[in-house]
Every structure is written in structure tokens, then in C-alpha cells.
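Checklist before submission:
- one chain only
- standard amino acids only
- sequence pasted in full

Submission:
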Amino acid sequence: MTVEVRPASKFEDVRALLGPKSPQANVCWCLSYRIPSKLNRELRGPARGEYVAGLLRSGAPLGVLAYEDGEPVGWAAVAPRADTSFACNRKIPHVDDLPVWSLWCIRVRPGHRGKGLSHALIAGAVEYARAQGAPAVEAYPLDNGDARVDLTMAYPGVRENFERAGFTHAADTTSVLAGHPRVLMRLDLG
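Returned file contents:
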């Protein structure tokens, strides 16, 4: 198995990870934290994918994709916090005024899980942010301890995986997802 992680740039590859089976479906497309709530509610069906295609054309940082033997098999969303809803999220605090980047979604396709791809995605997202001049990367994973996490709700990742990647606990949050508290983890890149 050869795994390569690189910045998301091809719409077809992003669609393979984030798009719906049915073009009319209203799946997230990893827009929920990227755009204002009102716009997120307004974008329906194919308009969501078209919005992502426009972001890719604009050159906006979306995230990274993991490729296994050339096939897109994993996704991690990472972008400047100022360009996300985390910039004004009341449940997830700001540690300081650094222009940090947020890493908020990790997805590995079924059939490719259990191979360490989430670790490769976290490392790839950090390297992408570093290359773009980010002073630090924040993540908001579930602090699930030893409890199982429903894979559908595990998209922010789990604390243990971020600790393995060198992130440290920076703050508690009041955000809870799937019954698990979320914590603010941070990796300084300076």
C-alpha cells in the first residue's frame, strides 16, 4: 500500500470523498463549519457540490486528500480559522489571537479504515497548513476516553489520535458531539 497525502485540488477526487451517491442529496460536503449557517441551510442538493467546485477554482484552502495507490481514500478539512465558523463559535474558545488554522473533519472511505490513514491525514493537514504559513493548527476532537464512537459522528477525530500527532490539550470546550465532549487540541508550528 502506497499512501500519499496532498492538498485537495481536483473536484472529482473531493466529490469521491464528500459527495453523495445521489446528486440531489443534501450531504454536508464539509461545508457546515466553512460557511455561514444561513448559506449552509440555503444550499441544497447539487448547489452544495457546485459551491465546493467554486472554492477549488478560487484556490481557497479546503483540505488534504489521502491517496492509496492513486485512489482518493481519505479527507481532512483544514483552513484558516478566520475563514470558518470557528472564528465566532461560542462553544469553542480562542486560546489567543494567533491566526491559527482549524482542522475539523477527517474522513476515511469504508474499506480503507484501520490502516492508519487518519494519522496520515492529520500529518498531511499539518504540513499543508505549515506550508501556507500557519503559526499553529487547532483541532476540536472528541474526548471519548475508551468509549466507542459511532463512525458517523467521529468526523472531528478523537483526542488520542491528535495526541499521537503531537497536539496538546489547549482548552476545554462546551461543545458535545454524539455524547462526547470536544476538546481544543493545538500544535504550535513555530
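Reviewer check: The longest strand covers residues 71-80.
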